[in-house]
Design a protein that fits this description.
Elements lengths: L3 H13 L20 H23 L15 E11 L6 E2 L6 E4 L8 E2 L12 E7 L5 E7 L6 H5 L3 E12 L4 E13 L3 E13 L13 E16 L10 E2 L4 E19 L2 E19 L1 E5 L5 E5 L2 E20 L2 E9 L4 E10 L1
Antiparallel strand pairs: 1-7, 1-18, 2-4, 3-5, 5-6, 7-8, 8-9, 9-10, 10-12, 11-14, 12-13, 13-16, 14-15, 16-17, 17-18
Helix pairs in contact: 1-2
């Protein structure tokens, strides 16, 4: 069997986390399309959903490293690396299917690895499928569940990196505007990546008379980030493939809202900060276009827009960290407690 198409969907996401050197996109995951369309969506969702949630969490991180707003025309430029930790229970998945029967792995496992899970052959189960299309065609066969990338062994920690760069600009009345943006970036020969985000931070202590003269800073923040990646799948297949398309595209989109209150206190070159907030994140992964599925017996079935997944993760977040400022250079690190705990480390420069 050939595994091209769906592997590109997962590889698109993983590419953003610098995993492409560890993932062979030509060998994983397309066989899941041989299941019925509903079961294929369930399998893909189980496999890739932990990544969608973890990446969207990372995308909404690292907006602030102080509660003190710039003076008018002041600005900062900051680059941050976020390590989003993956819980152990996100390494495997199981589900209920209409036309699939899971066959335990050689080690007896009855759960399949997610994209972050094991790549040990003895732990990979298989599926028997047997279903009839609306046109009366019978499809049956067996395929192995896709293996994971064995996250901890491959990169040393059970976390995915989500890098971020942003510009902050002071405007009026102790208010900062924050901007995240990249021009359209080509991904290989067949993909395009885009990212844009905006945020606003406002000093709220100035509006509370009894707090205004106290020696700390207190601000409120709201930010939105949207990222999209589109990949031409037609260029990845030919007539010999089990899954073939002439107009297929994979589309990966993530948007996050971050709402946060932050307090900070400066001691000479050291600033301690903490924040309490809420994340609202949504991610989607879709295969659009027409796909011809051919089984081992040579029978064919055409799927239109066969995969359409959405994932959302909402919840509170609690952040604590510190920043060093040496002249105009800043260094910061913080840790955020949330569903996917996140460690952030960054460097930048700040003026006024």
């Amino acid at each position: 069997m050939n595994y091209k198409i769906l592997s590109k969907c997962s590889a698109l996401a993983l590419l953003l986390s610098l995993f492409t050197t560890k993932v062979n996109a030509q060998e994983e995951f397309t066989e899941l399309l041989e299941a019925s369309q509903r079961d294929a969506n369930s399998l893909v969702n189980g496999y890739i959903n932990p990544f969608l949630e973890a990446f969207s969490t990372g995308l909404g991180s690292s907006w602030m490293n102080t509660a003190k707003a710039h003076k008018s025309a002041g600005f900062d430029l900051t680059v941050t690396a976020n390590a989003v930790y993956i819980p152990d229970d996100e390494l495997f998945y199981s589900g209920t299917y209409e036309n699939l029967t899971l066959m335990p792995s050689a080690s007896g496992s009855e759960r399949a690895p997610t994209v972050f899970g094991t790549n040990n052959d003895s732990d990979i189960p298989s599926y028997n499928y047997n279903y009839t299309t609306e046109e009366g065609q019978q499809f049956e066969g067996t395929f192995d569940a896709p293996e994971g990338i064995n996250l901890k062994d491959e990169i040393g920690i059970q976390a995915i990196p989500v890098p971020m760069a942003q510009l902050g600009i002071g405007i009026i009345k102790k208010t900062d505007i924050k901007i995240r943006w990249t021009p359209t970036i080509d991904v290989g020969d067949n993909g395009e990546f885009k990212l844009i985000g905006f945020g606003i931070m406002h000093d709220i202590k100035q509006h509370i008379p009894k707090l205004n003269n106290l020696p700390f800073d207190l601000s409120a923040f709201v930010g939105f980030t949207d990222m999209s990646l589109e990949y031409d799948l037609a260029a990845e297949t030919d007539e010999s493939d089990n899954v073939n398309t002439e107009n297929g595209t994979a589309v990966f989109d993530v948007n996050t809202w971050s709402i946060q209150g932050m307090i900070s206190k400066k001691f000479s070159v050291l600033t301690l900060y903490g924040g309490l907030g809420y994340n609202i994140s949504k991610a989607s992964l879709a295969m659009k276009g027409d796909y011809t599925i051919t089984d081992d017996n040579g029978d064919s079935d055409v799927r239109i827009n066969p995969i359409s997944l959405t994932s959302s993760t909402n919840g509170p977040r609690l952040t604590a960290g510190f920043r060093l400022k040496l002249a105009i250079i800043t260094l910061h690190t913080d840790y955020t407690l949330q569903k996917y705990n996140t460690l952030s480390v960054g460097v930048g420069f700040s003026v006024r």
